[in-house]
Amino acid sequence: MSFENYDWSDVVPIEQDDGPDPLAQIAYDPEYSKAMGYFRALAQKNEHSERALTLTEKIIEHNPAHYTIWHYRQQILFSLNKDLYEELDFIRNQVEQNPKNYQLWHHRQVIVEKLKDCSLESSFTEEVLNDDSKNYHAWTYRQWVIRTFNLWDNELSFVEKLLEKDIRNNSAWNQRYFAIFYNPTKPSEEFLEQEVQYGITKIKLAPNNISPWNYVKGVIAKSKLKIDVLEELCKTLYQQGIISPHALGCLVDIYEDRAKCGSINEKELGIQTCILLAEQHDTIRQKYWNYRKHVLTSIA
Amino acid sequence: MGPKRVSLDSRALEFKEDNISTNYIQPDDQLLSCFGWIFRCLFMASTEKTERPSELFIDLHVKYIQSLDTKKDDLEYWLTEHLRLSGVYWGLTALDLMNNVDALNKEEVVKYVVSCQHDNGGFGGHIGHDPHLLYTHYAVLILQIEDSLDAVNVEKIVEYVASRQDRQTGAFTGDEWGEIDTRFSYSAISCLSLLKRLDAIDVKKATEFIMLCKNFDGGFGSTPGAESHAAQIFCCVGALAIVNSLHLVDADLLGWWLCERQLKNGGLNGRPEKLEDVCYSWWVLSALSILGRVHWINKEKLIDFILTAQDLETGGIADRPGDMVDVFHTLFGLTGLSLLGYHGLKLVDPVYCLPKYVVQRVGLAERYHAKYGGFT
């Protein structure tokens, strides 16, 4: 039943009170104004009823970021003992128009926490990510579900699917790291070495994309490997005529490490690479590369 | 029709790189804000601007913000009821940076802020809206600009903010409903710092939680494991600065991640492979500034980008050139320019997003700016 069909004759709507000379007035839609008038009246007496629930739906339609309305809705749902699976459906319908609304995502979390049932959440987030593979809310919510309900097992293959669609999806790379390193089951050294090789393969597909570089370096940092393992990759790319600032930057990192261990030759190579980046291949970040050059130059 | 909101269309861009094309890059429109989000009506400008503005039209922007104070029936909705308080903060701060803080009547502003406070000390986004940490923070920011803290019950504010901390994890919830996010850590720490009452929370635990949100790329996310994002990075770095824990940040690594946000057109994005947006001129630059590395951004190109996002007909600044303006992007375009030393604007404090003179008046020193040896 839509909110207009309920009997509101006993309710005196409370009008918006912005004060005598309101700061920044808003011209409201009359339907929205009416609904808000009823809301203020119902909220005042803390009414939890079917008509109140329908009213919240109406207001959310107009203003899905109205967080007070979401709170009210939650209270009504719980006190009327409503079917929370229906509510999950409601949220699913809303998320299409408002995929990046904080209140909506947290509302789902509150409902799922109450239900203690996560069975629909993997497909729910997958659906949203199909529409927008970088939706931050979807990813952080998915992480919450995985952590809370221990759903680690299939996450790597999910990430794999997304990386196949778009190798440059930074969110997916982040999720890969999450799936491995936030997992209560710690990865073996062998697994990490495989991951580095995996990263190298993907870098070759998109050497100018920063995500696999960051990922691989992150994995190396957690393993017994050193960043040198990327040296061959960086040099090969350069020899093939593929200019990637990330590859060159990685060489700077490698050379800096070796310079710190006393290699004068590599110190010079590092300096030259910084100059190459500052003056030719990443000029917009000239000042950063000049800083790196300075750091290298200062190594005794 | 009521307050119109049109979500930004996903932009279809052919992006060729490394002989592989990706289908599209999604604009990162609604994720950003440490300070909430607003409705806006967005569409590409129907007329192409042939002139590229090479200066900042301050008078126009002052008039634009003032015009938001009058009842309007047209589509330029700049705020909605639930975050009117945020809108006042954005507008007021922008005006102050443009040396026009009195363009909004001080008494009215203070009266309005006071009317948003609840018995438990928290503030809602508007009169009659539930209390929330974000709006409580905005309230304190506004009252500091207006030098009118005495108009409200400060002790109650402290009580409310402190009650938002989970003493086991150190994290902060936005309100009683339990959403956790490093945005709230920042709001709480900044708010209490401005009230000189950091003693009311467990700072050590708060810091521990923030550090749990540090990622392999040196950045920070909203919760442990969440993707690094410039707005969250600002929140975490700002909070760490306030509690004197900047040494926990890998400034070179994070500084590089941040300056890597700069695209060829000079604009900044919020994470890799996303579109540029003027508001990142704040999130990215403020974090870099706190880390003492703001010069790693190509200044001229970014200034050019921000100036081109001005609307010379209506005043105000948009998220990118050609789009509709709003007060949120107007503020962050201005704060970005201020951090880049643009003339005609007051200096903005990169930690508090307040004019520096306000922070100085509160008595908070600039202890927190990381030094890295003075190399420029």
Number of helices of chain B: 13
Number of alpha- plus pi-helical segments of chain A: 15
Percent helix of chain B: 25-40%
Strand content of chain B: under 5%
Spatial extent as radius of gyration of chain A: 27 Å
H/E series of chain B: EEHHHHHHHHHHHEEHEEH
Q: Percent range for helical residues of chain A?
A: 55-70%
Q: Which blocks of ≥5 consecutive residues of chain B have pLDDT under 50?
A: 1-50, 71-79, 370-376
| Total E-strand runs of chain B | 6
Query: Can you give the mean pLDDT of chain A?
Result: 93
Q: Tell me about the biggest sheet of chain B? A: 2 strands, antiparallel
Order of helices and strands of chain A: HHHHHHHHHHHHHHH
Structural summary, described in words:
Chain B: Belongs to the protein prenyltransferase subunit beta family. Chain B: Keywords: Metal-binding, Prenyltransferase, Repeat, Transferase, Zinc. The complex is a heterodimer of chains A (about 300) and B (about 375). By secondary structure, chain A is mostly helical. Among the domains of chain A are: about 150-225, no CATH class; about 240-300, no CATH class. Chain A contains 15 helices and no strands. The mean pLDDT of chain A is about 95. Chain B is mainly α and about 375 residues long. Chain B has helices at about 60-65, 85-95, 105-115, 135-145, 155-165, 180-195, 205-210, 230-240, 250-260, 280-290, 300-310, 325-340, 355-360, and strands at about 15, 20, 315-320, 325, 350, 355. In chain B, the strands form 3 sheets. Chain B has a two-stranded antiparallel ribbon with strand order 1-2. A two-stranded antiparallel sheet of chain B has the order 3-4. In chain B, strands 5-6 form a two-stranded antiparallel ribbon. In chain B, helix 2 runs parallel beside helix 4, helix 9 runs antiparallel to helix 10 (about 280-290) and helix 10 (about 280-290) runs parallel beside helix 12. Chain B is globular, with a radius of gyration of 20 Å. Chain B starts with 14 loop residues before the first strand and ends in a 14-residue tail after the last helix. The relative contact order of chain B is 0.14. The model of chain B is unreliable at about 1-50, about 70-80 and about 370-375 (pLDDT under 50). Chains A and B meet through helix 1, helix 3, helix 5, helix 7 and helix 9 of A and helix 2, helix 3 and helix 9 of B.
